[in-house]
Amino acid sequence: MGENPEELFPICTPGASDSASFDEVAELLWLSGRTITHAIMMMIPEAWENHATMDPARRAFYDYHSLLMEPWDGPAAVSFTDGSLVGATLDRNGLRPGRYWITEDGLVVFASEVGVIDIEPAKVVKKGRVSPGKMFLVDTEAGRIVDDSEIKSELASAEPWADWLKDNLISLNDLPEREHVVHTSASVNLRQRTFGYTQEELRILLGPMAKNAADPLGAMGSDTPLAVLSTRPRLLFDYFTQSFAQVTNPPLDAIREELVTSLKTSIGPNGNLLATKKVKKPQVALDFPVINNDELAKIANIEAPIGAENEGERLAIKVRGLYRSDGGEAALRARLTEICEQVSGAINRGVQYVVLSDRDSNAQWAPIPSLLLISAVHHHLLRSATRTKTALVVEAGDVREVHHVALLVGYGAAAVNPYLAMESVEELIRSGDVLGVTPEAAVGNLIKGLGKGVLKIMSKMGISTVASYCGAQTFEALGLFQDLVDEFFAGTRTQLSGVGLGVIAAEVSARHAMAYPPEGIEQAHRPLLGGGEYQWRREGEPHLFNPDTVFRLQHATRERRYDIFKSYTSAIDDQSKTLMTLRGLLGFKAGLREPLSIDDVEPVSSIVKRFSTGAMSYGSISQEAHETLAIAMNQLGAKSNTGEGGEDVDRLLDPRRRSAIKQVASGRFGVTSLYLTNAQDIQIKMAQGAKPGEGGQLMAQKVYPWVAATRHSTPGVGLISPPPHHDIYSIEDLAQLIYDCKRANPSARVHVKLVSEVGIGTVAAGVTKAKADVVLVSGHDGGTGASPLNSLKHAGAPWELGLAETQQTLILNGLRDRVVVQVDGQLKTGREVVIAALLGAEEYGFATAPLVVSGCVMMRVCHLDTCPVGVATQNPELRARFSGKPEFVVNFFEFLAQEVREILAELGFRSIEEAIGHADALDIRKAVDHWKTEGLELGPLLEGQNFDRDVPLRNLIGQNHELEKHFDQQLITMSAEALADRSPVKISIAVVNTDRSVGTMLGHEVTKKFGIEVLGTDTIDVTLTGQAGQSLGAFLPAGITLRLFGDSNDYVGKGLSGGRIMVRPDRAKTFQAELNVIAGNVIGYGATSGEMFLRGQVGERFLVRDSGATAVVEGIGDHGCEYMTGGCALILGRTGRNFGAGMSGGVAYVFDLAVAEVNKQALDSGELQLLRLDEADVDFVRALLRTHQEETDSALAARMLADFETDPAAIAQHFTKVLPRDYAAVLETRAQAEGEGLDPDGDVVWKRILEVTGG
């Protein structure tokens, strides 16, 4: 910002909102001489990095400006003006709606929805929307609307951006090659010991990444100690957890929507942001934030170019990140100060690239943790206002997993060179421990796996580009002393103060001693430690569930031996010796209340009703395991949870076997009107403890035919749930889904499942205001059937912290009495239940423990379908080994309740209800002699709990859902005859945009009355006129038809369950319907059956996760048919970008398909086939067109039908059939098998299916 940037400070007002900061920077750029459109395009660029068909001049504009400023990332619809130009733009992902109307007299209405003001339909000449990364602009002086392409073409040609870019971008390929060094096995082994590598890490982390180029998977959660409680020296990385988006903004989909993300970056000094003419500050272009040794060598030896004033001078230096380990904390601190001054001096000399390296450690000099090193230098340069003058590159030996790379980038590293991880991988190949890949390919795979893993972690926070992620610090410190955080990680949030620099130094010294023993006798090939972090090992990290505790629990519940159960809980609860959880550091205060006789405490039969089992899907676990839990919980009057895999209709209608809690997750598998109507509770899963910010996944080998049928998908084809709910991009959207679910079953409680992290209290308060009946706080250590190991170990926080924050925030905001608070996450004993109650929880969830009771032996291979005890498998042979019974699960929960009674009696509480929220009965135990716990501060758990005696500490009143005011009440009344005896009824009624979820409550009444004996087509025929609100026809069952004359907002046909929906313009319209927008974004999300006919264009993510519905539309936005597993789409206009991403079933017929708009990965891999129509296809398309024309009076359909009459072959050539390869192969395989008289669900056919799908 020129020579004296401090004269402008503060540019962003401290403590202001994101929007305020954005406004201030936009104004600064405008004042620098740029137009307002130029400034906005710099700040919110469209997704140009992977846009193959973008105009090169426009790409050069974005690329050049990326050297000056990283994108302002995240979901946003931003309006702006400079006084004469008024405009709006949408973020690159299109995660906010933007609709506009233009009238014949020049009025322009722009809003996030239609129907905000009344306008005569006959006066409207144009109805449009803003697309992702596009701009809508009104020039009020010229009196015209300026098209997005005109705005951008004008700016793209304003300067020779491509020439400016060429002069400022250095390709690594243009730099001199350096010699590749191969290290000996002894050298690698010595340094592995120096940095604390274990055999387990080589086997479980590095080996799979070297082979598969992906972050390895694990299962069953984490039950090892937090780093601050571990008796072993832990890496500094382990004291940080990844933050993630939940509710307030969505995580992104880095897999299916990769084209809007970018790992490309350029590193080097930043130019003057305020200069409007050419800026000369060359930067090195990188395709990936992870670089190999040869690339690092090029950067470390970069010189000033020929012709520059300092021609030939070295522009890079390497700083040794080593210190004298025998000097402890003082030596470490002094060395960090020295390094910071060394870097500052180098920058003052003109150095532009600083490599912070921990190489060349020896017996005297130990490596400084790379995270401490980068963050110390980064914050030093920020404080000295020189950070933008250099790029910081890290050469680190302690980096060996995705979490480590993400942390280094998040705390300022422009690029990371994990040299020892790469050398370790090469050694694994040479030793034969990893086969089938060359050392060069293995290193390439490792770099790819680490980089893609960073992209996933970025995406959890809704960040699309690595440039925006660098220095973002989207992490929470857990167990670091506050002064340490303030000094070296300023701005990082921490709820739990703990170890200081002295302990960090001690942990480094302990690892260092493994390589250089104090006695001075080095062993060149001393084996690495075994590990035990991911799987239990006798000599490794302790696990709460180990062979001893598993045996005791199973023995106790199978023999109904309460004495053995008590020995199990004693082993778990004996935290005073093992210090494995925060709750282990809490004790009960004696003497606050007079102890009671246990006879005076509420009975077991009452307590167990507060218990539920976790959300484990059918598919993840076997039918036998799932039904065992459901039967047991139903016997107890407690609740089991379907998980996100749906529920088979046979079970759904059987009160003995069905799950009381029906989960609604992002995949919407099996979420129908019937499913929701038969729920006692409906749980919206915003996040999962084991993998917050990510979707669920079910491997292809577990998608057996019976699982596929329940999930409305294809046998043998793997399933991935989207990371976000595509109908939740904000708290308002969550409120809408709560509203939908409550109308889909007014008698069911609606839960929202959150994961513990800093700020969960604010989110819980928002969820409560959005009228959730239950807020669930999940701990970071919860179980899962499949999760990337980095998420399983490094995302989220303990439930104790999240629960305490939630309780305190709800009370402070006067909301506690309106909502039930539930908690889950590795709950195993009655003591833990009582601690949770005292911290504010009213209900308690268990998942791992009931599975262990049912036979699980914690093999942690749930994702492989090889579970040896029949719990987490669909394989019929393995399922036959399942030994669990409902009575074992009943025993467990009754024993648990009995233990709760005993503790309540000791504390003087007559019931759990009395105990809820009484944190005054908790005490912080004096920590045992432990070298890390001296500075541990558990105050946040209990502080802030001292409220007035009359303040509600638990739920007392229900939410007011205003069900009696819902639009459908009048529809239900008008449909009385149909509900009574199936008599057809026709209804005509006006609708406005505040009428949301129209038809949903009526659908519930129909489903409740008729169940699977559905109504005939069009039995209840409703004609609506006007602008419908969100979720028109959500979960609409068969027999109901909605005909809308007007417009609709987002989420039309969400969860469509057999109903029919037609949307067409008002009868008075004057425009061409096919060129105008008729409905919003995310149409048909999670639809399972039914029909939709939409006369006009719609927005982004059309038919995402459709699994059985048929829809006709005249144009769609980006990401159409994403994650589709069944059903049919007929698209009569353009598709937008990224069509068919993750489409694994169903079929789409597209008119004049632009192949460049189809998902590139799906085409390149052959997953999607683009076919010409055969005779059957032509007949099918004509029939659909005819229905569309009849139902909507579509002029476009009429013209196409006329063309089919005159020249059917010619018009058919315009259509492309988009068909998933594996879906087609499976259908053909099953059809052939039926022709041979084979059981299509049998073992022979299943093996054939896996052969054709490669599952």
UniProtKB/TrEMBL annotation:
GO molecular function ontology, one term from the record: metal ion binding
Coiled-coil annotated spans: none
Its EC number(s): 1.4.1.13
Pathway: Amino-acid biosynthesis
Keywords for this protein: 3Fe-4S, Amino-acid biosynthesis, FAD, Flavoprotein, FMN, Glutamate biosynthesis, Glutamine amidotransferase, Iron, Iron-sulfur, Metal-binding, Oxidoreductase
Top-level taxon: Bacteria
Glutamine amidotransferase type-2 domain location: 3-164
Domain called Glutamate synthase alpha subunit C-terminal: residue spans: 990-1162
Gene Ontology terms: biological process: glutamate biosynthetic process
Start and end residues of each Glutamate synthase central-N domain: 191-480
The keyword Lipoprotein belongs to this UniProt entry's keyword annotation: no
Domain Glutamate synthase: 545-909
Cofactors demanded by this protein: FMN; [3Fe-4S] cluster; FAD
Similarity comment: family membership: Belongs to the glutamate synthase family.
NCBIfam families, sorted: PRK11750.1
The protein, known as: Glutamate synthase [NADPH] large chain
Source species: Renibacterium salmoninarum (strain ATCC 33209 / DSM 20767 / JCM 11484 / NBRC 15589 / NCIMB 2235)
